[in-house]
Amino acid sequence: MKRSRRGDLDQAEHPPELMLSPRLEAAAAAALLLLGLAHMLTLWFVSDDAFISYRYARNLAGGIGLVYNPGERVEGYSNFLWTLVASLVIRAGGRPELWMPGLGVVCSLGTLGLVMAAIRRRGASPLLAGAILAANPAFAAYATSGLETALFTLLVTSATLATAAALAPGDSFRTRPLLGSAFLLGLASLTRPEGALVTACVGALLLTLALLRCGSVRSWMAWAGAWLVVAGPHLAWRLAYYHRFLPNSFAIKAPGLLQAPEGGRYVILALGELHLLWLVPAIVASLLFGAWRGLAGRELGLMGAIVLPFLAYVCATGGDWMPLFRFVVPMLPLIALVAAAALEGWMGFGGSRAARRLGWAFAMVSLMAYVSLDLRASWRQQVPNGAPNSVWIARRDLENWRRLGEMLERVTQPTDTLATTAAGVIPYVSGLYTIDLLGLCAPDHSRYRRRATDRPGHQWVLAEAELYRLRPQILLGHPVVRDTLHYLGMSLDIDPAWRDRIVSSYSLVGLTLPGTPVRYAGCMLRNDVAERVLEAGRRLAPPP
C-alpha cells in the first residue's frame, strides 16, 4: 500500500502495465474531448422550456423586470443564474437561443476535462472515466439544450471535487478547497434549486466528520457561512420580489411519496436506456471487496452521499418528460468517476500483463460500441421503450412551434392574449401576453385544477370557469402542427360539461406557417377577432 500526498492510506500504486506513456495518454484524453464534442454536436437540440427563461431574460434586459408577463411577479423559471447570463447576452445584442447552447457545450467540455484531470491526479488513468462520460447520450444532448443543466453539472462536479480535496485526514479540513466548495455550491444553488439539496448532503457529511473529530466544527461553520454569503442574498431577494421561498415549479411539481413509483421507474429506465446498469455490478463488487483505484474511501463516501439522495429526490418528483433523462445528468460525472475507479480496480487484480491489457481494450471497445448503438435510439421518432420524448421529437416540435410563433407575431395585435400549454418558444417569438394553461408561469394556482395524468409538470390545468372568464383571443392549447389541413384540430383538456360553452365563442382555423416545408397549425380564434387574423394571414400568404 502507498501513502498518498493527502496522507490517506491509498490503493497500491498503479501498475505500469495499465498505464500509457504521458504523451500517449494526453493524446488519448484530447481525442476523448473531441469525441465528446462530436457527440454533443450530433445530438444538438434546444428545449422549448429554455425559451421560458429567455423570455424572462428579455424582459429583464428591457427594463420590465424578471417577469414572464409584464406586471405579474411569478418565478416560472428555476435557473436564476442561467437566466441572468441570458439577460446579459441580450443586453450585449446577442440572441440567447444561439449563445446559450454554445455556453452549455463549453460547460460540458469543462466537466469532461475536469473529470479526467481529477482521476489522473489521483493516480489512475483518465481514459475510462472520460469514455464513460463522453459517450453518454444524455450528457451530450443536454450540453446544447439551452437549459442550465450543463452549468449545474459543472458546478456540482467542481464542488464535489473541491470538497474531496478538503477532506484531509486527521482533525481538520483544508481551508482553501473547503471555502471553494462552499462558493461553488452557492453558485449551484443559484443555478438550480437542487443545489441546496447537494449543499445539504455535503454539509451533513462534513458536520458528521467534524463531530467524529475528523474535522473542525469551526471550519464547518465557516463553510456554511461562505455558502450563505453566496446564496443567502438571492433567497432574501426572492422572498421580497416574488413573495415566495421556492420557484413556481415546486407548486406545480412538488416532491412527494405519491410520485415516487413513477419517479423510481424514471430512474431505473434512465439507468437502462443510458447503459449505466452494466456498471452497477463492478461498483457493488468493489464496495464489497475494496477493489478501487484512483479514489480514496472518503471521496467514495462523499460521492455516495450526494448521488443516492439526489436520485431519491428525483424519484420523489416523479421524474421528467424531456428526452434522455435530464434530471439524472448532474450525477453522471460522479457516477463515471466511481465506475471508472471500480473497473480499474478489478482490472489490476490477477492475470498476466497481456490479459490485463486485453481486458482494458475490451472494456473501452465495448463501451464505445454499446453507446454508439444507442445513438440511433436517441433519434427515433417514436418514444423508445416508454421513455420520455426523443431528441427527434423535441427538435421537430421546436422548429414547428418557432414558425407558429412567427406567424402569430405577424397576424396578431400587441393587445391580443394567447392561451397555450407550450409556454416556451411560441410566447417568446410572438411576444404576446400568455396564459400558461399548465400553471408554471401563473401567479394564482387557486384557479387551476388537477388533471388525470402522471406526466410530471402537466398535472395541473387552468380551470374551465377561469378560461371561460378570461376568453383569450387565441386559444392554442397544446400546439398541433401537420403537413396537411386534413384532420387538423386542436388539443385542449376541457371538461365535457364546459366544452360547448367555451368552444361556442371560437372558430377552429388552420394557420399556414411561414417557411418550408409547408406546415399548418390548428388553433381556436375568438369569433370577434377571427376575421381580422385570417385577413392578416391572407395578406402574408405568397401568391399562388
Structural write-up:
The protein has 544 residues and is α/β, with parallel strands linked by helices. The chain folds into two domains: 2-386, no CATH class; 391-540. The chain is built from 21 helices and nine strands. The strands form three sheets. Strands 4-3-7-9-8 form a five-stranded mixed beta sheet.
Number of domains: 2
Derived structural class: alpha/beta
Q: Largest sheet, described in full?
A: 5 strands, mixed
Percent of residues in beta strands: 5-15%
Coarse shape = globular
Q: Helix amount, in percent?
A: 55-70%
Radius of gyration, Cα only, in angstroms?
26 Å
Order of helices and strands: EEHHHHHHHHHHHHHHHHHEHEEEHEHEEH
Mean pLDDT score: 87
Give the termini distance in whole angstroms.
81 Å
The unreliable regions are: 1-18
Q: Largest beta sheet: what is the strand line-up? A: 4-3-7-9-8
Number of strands: 9
* Number of separate helices: 21
